[in-house]
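Protein: P2X purinoceptor
Species: Ceuthmochares aereus
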Amino acid sequence: VIKYRLYQDVDEVNSSVRTSVKGVVDASNRIWDTAEYTIPMQASLNAVNSFFVMTNMIKTENQLEQECPEYPSARTICSSDRSCKKGSVDVHSHGIQTGRCVRYTLTVKTCEVRAWCPVESTENPPDPAVLRSSEDFTVLIKNNIHFPKFNYTVLNIPPILNTSCTYNKKTSPNCPIFRLGDILQEANQNFSEVAVKGGIIAIEINWDCNLDSWFYDCNPKYSFRRLDDRNVMPGFHFRYARYYKHRDGQEQRTLFKVYGIRFDVLVFGTGRQFDAIVLIKNVGSMLSYFGLVVTAMELAIRVGQCTSFGKSPFYKIYNRRKYEILPFSRKVIYVSFVDKPYVTLIQKPLKTSLQHTEGTIVESHPVKFCDAESCCNSESNEDHGDEQYELGQPLRETFHFPDSQKWCVCGKCRPTERYHEQLCCRSEEGQCITTTHSFQQVVLCSDTLKKALLYKYPFLSLTDANINKELRHFAYKQYIHWSFGSFDLEDRAVVPNCCRWKIRDTYPKASRHYTGFNME
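Structure follows.
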């Protein structure tokens, strides 16, 4: 805000320029003063804030309106009258052809024209220039500027002007009097070379004003450069004539083709002043840019995720930190593998099997499970000797499953076409959790399930008609509590396919028809 002065209101400059050229030179056997080498009317026709200084000329004297041969060129040289067309006018000719071919010199014939005779020759201008000494002329530039928004006016001339000063970029940077030779030197031009054919030079005045009283600064900065191209048709020239009348009434003139330097004074700049409203607007705009920065960073990260770097740990951590998904949202489900120490959150809908769908790690958690020695007491061992004998057997199986599903890595899952049911108890090949002694004791032990049900629901009637349903449903919850470490995720947690069917086979439904995902 401070560096770019965003606390200030801005106004563009309005400007007026007046110039005064001074200098006298003796050239071509005559004295040249300001009236001779400055032509204000020509300047006003080409630029509003310009002045012209003549440096060279071609003079054609004693011209009368009559017939004479045209200046020789490819269009005007002739051999007979048939080469000349009466009344013909060419943009490059000096007059109107009469239809006759006459001698221009002893060896050259040209078409005769009715014009101001003798016609001007098209020879090159004198080199060195006639008024090459004009580089010592000086010009006083008076520049008034006004900032209408702030109602402030200032002049480039100091209150007490030293009229003997001359502008110098280092020693007198605020002097409004300029030596013409110094101007071209600052524009990296040689005055003697430019004076031959002329040129166009820009005098740039830049006003960068701080109008606040505590940091006031409003002084012009001058710079100079050449505007015409020095390689493609360089220079600047025009013609004018001085007319005379003889006693017999015939008019005569002297034609001048003058070359010189046109100086264009270009004024630009801004004024600045403190404005509280502008400050508030700019601060608000800067704050909004922070939102754009966040958007740009988000876009860059998204592009990175689409590349080979998208699988790096950085992006996994970023997604986990950025997105906070409601744990009980219907758009998410949770899975837990027995060989991974964390719970994974997965968003629906699924585009592949639940086993192969990538999710977000929710948290590492201590797996809570029932101590196998305390799940069934000694009394239950006596009452269910046969069951205890069966559950107590060591359950080990091979890990090679040629007929299993592609998404199943334990070999105990059953086929299904539904993506949300294609979930194994493990993430990598290994022993199925349903074949372990712990699963039998913690999840399937009927005595443990009954005691837990009655502890939670004291008045529950465990009759033969509904006992399997109650035990089956509570076995699901028992597995979730064991595998996920909490009952809080019960509604969104998914029981693996192998575990679900093991529970169903242990406590079957009479109809043997299950809806699958709803843990029936």
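Remarks: The first strand starts at residue 8 and ends at 12.
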